[in-house]
Description:
seven-stranded parallel β-sheet
Amino acid sequence: IDETALAFLGGFSILQTLDLSDILHIQDYHVEKLLDYNLRMLEHLTINGCIQLTNRSLECVARQRNRIKTLNATTNTNYTWHGVVEVLYNCEALNCVDFSHCPNVRFFGCITRLSNHPLDRDLKQFVSRSLKKLRLEACEDLDEDSLDYICGALLELEEVSLPYIRAVSDPAVQALATGCPNLTFLHVQGCTA
């Protein structure tokens, strides 16, 4: 679709699901206009392969707060931990998220410090979310804090896909088994740790 078609999408004011996958010319301002002003009923957004989008689009998704339930935002080198954290922190109704093949997403989670006192600097508190499905395929450099968050704060997870992530180890799989009692699907192919 072109610029004209993107402009007309705003006319679908009761649209609940939108898939904009692989639209190479879509930019952050398109997402902002659609989400902030036009599509006030939107709950499920797919922006896979939209390679010009940046954290600015993720911040726009985060501004929608409890409205967005599904976010598929795969195959983008512009997304980083900053945009991901904004989405997790603000979108409390989110139940399905996919940031697969986003190599610069090295952290996934929402962690707050309990205090600023020097003796307490290692104490962390996870901000829990009710995610049911999580896909982070090929986010190779995802760190151990992310895995701690997934195991400690996402207790309602039913499906987790973490293939080809270096930090996934035997203890991480054990922590998933313990921390995610509703897990029915686990994909850890190619995890060599």
